[in-house]
Here is the input.
Amino acid sequence: MFKIRKTVNTANALLLASSIALSAPLWAENNNITAKAAQTNYSKQQFYNKFQQSLVDRQQKRIANENNGGNKIDEDVELQEENIIIEETNYDIEYIEDDDFSYTIEENYYNDYIDLDVPTGKPFKSYMDARHITNKSSIQYQLKSQYELDDSGIYMINGRYACAIGSYYSTDVGIKFDIVMKTGDIIPCILADCKADEHTDALGQYTIDNGSIVEFVVHEPTLIPNISNQWGNTGDVSTLGGIFEGEISYIRIYF
Here is the structure.
């Protein structure tokens, strides 16, 4: 089941709702209700447009995979109808007075997300050196100018770990997401690169060779000593311990 949640942050007034109200002046007490409805409908439309096609694509992948007798889905991947749950918080309303009319503006920052399932039994977390991102015309390469190296050897952008995940979750480079661990810990991430479909399972959830769901972008000379043991480099970022250790519960994608 895909769980989609819409929350509203209290901040400055949303300009779009203002423009809607200005283009069609709303009178008397009903003005506020109409403006709120207009903004809510617009937000919902944008919301559905963003994920409708991706949900259809995922369902088609599942169906194709089930029908392909030579490439069955792993037993630990639960197949279920693609239900969408929408939760909305109460809207905070700001009333704007004008000489001729008043109208309502919704708050300006929507923090929307979708929680996506992960296959179980895959605690391994791989890495790639940032030097492998070489296409200077790509968004991935442009993001490198924002990299900051943390003590572990993983690159971060504005407090989020630079990572790659499979196409099942997103191919929108620069999007923010959280790796929510079964321990309850949260690894804040940003999509710095995309895993190639030919390297992942049929659904695009994990790398076939090592079972890794998430791949961190790193500086190998700094990282490797931190994830090595008496036998050498483990190749597993989980070896860092702390929030990186253990299995992933689900991935929360923000949009």
